[in-house]
Amino acid sequence: xxxxxxxxxxxxxxxxxxxxxxxxxxxxxxxxxxxxxxxxxxxxxxxxxxxxxxxxxxxxxxxxxxxxxxxxxxxxxxxxxxxxxxxxxxxxxxxxxxxxxxxxxxxxxxxxxxxxxxxxxxxxxxxxxxxxxxxxxxxxxxxxxxxxxxxxxxxxxxxxxxxxxxxxxxxxxxxxxxxxxxxxxxxxxxxxxxxxxxxxxxxxxxxxxxxxxxxxxxxxxxxxxxxxxxxxxxxxxxxxxxxxxxxxxxxxxxxxxxxxxxxxxxxxxxxxxxxxxxxxxxxxxxxxxxxxxxxxxxxxxxxxxxxxxxxxxxxxxxxxxxxxxxxxxxxxxxxxxxxxxxxxxxxxxxxxxxxxxxxxxxxxxxxxxxxxxxxxxxxxxxxxxxxxxxxxxxxxxxxxxxxxxxx
Length: 407
Hints:
It is a single chain. The chain is an alpha+beta fold. The chain folds into two domains: 19-307, Bira Bifunctional Protein, Domain 2 (BirA Bifunctional Protein, domain 2); 320-406, Rossmann fold, CATH 3.40.50.800. Helix content is 29%, strand content 30%. It contains eleven helices and 23 strands. Helix 1 (19-26) crosses helix 8, helix 2 packs across helix 6 and helix 2 (42-61) packs across helix 8 (294-304). The mean pLDDT is 95.
């Protein structure tokens, strides 16, 4: 991609209350329509697409099947579980010209249960696990912290139904392991914590929390084992770990990026999602829900992976592998190298603008792609190679650059 053609360009200055707001807007990754509502610009969309692909691969690995469900929901389906009134404070509600009432999706439990009850009749149809990536709408009274707390955002939600509690909980912890793989692949320092179920369930649930001083949550975790808890359900901050009895409990701030809920049979009983077991008896399915906020993950990256110059994307989600910077007088050489990289299927953003070296280097650091390649009269027939997270530079031949990037 030629940076001269990319929409939009980096901004020189952005006033914002959070790091992710400032850097993602300044770098051209997102734009604010209103409080809590963001447009994913081309750079930001590339990042979120890569985040989603990592999630998709791990959801497929636990037999999840991808689909896409509606965002506009009739009041009647929410009334089946009683959540039309119970979730009133977070739901956006509206009427059409015929005075029929609807809600914008803040989650999809009722919708997926309606879908499943049309197709499930026997234990032979179970288990089923389906997921989608879609927009969620939540009536945040104080939308803040950039894209971390919005009124609409992208989420992956997986739902599973089972013939028994044993099978549900076996799958529940299987998904939890998949979440650990996802956030390990994404490169985060995270903890799994127990938490309150909120409007979803009266049972304790599990959250994936990324350690960050920018986080709104307070968590406690063991320095020796995998025990962790959200401060909402665990008040004691001294003493030994309740699980291993050896480790020290540490208090930290964190950003919630994923959660899973064992929902039991309540939804099935209220919505009459039944199956016939091996003895011919009718029983309600056991239900689980599992979410990851994709756009929230992008905001978390900005909070965790940055320095005083800008963003520092890990390679797994960087919008481009390479930022190619060409200075005045080497236009033909830059074109040749750009074409060679494109032919090798290297994701490259070429700053081909007629701007000063200072502006180009500043924008490259702000955008934060993992590798910066510089071509100038000073480098001659070589290319300057620099990693975004290092001050070290190397002069390499074009062949050496291509070899490294292709490995």
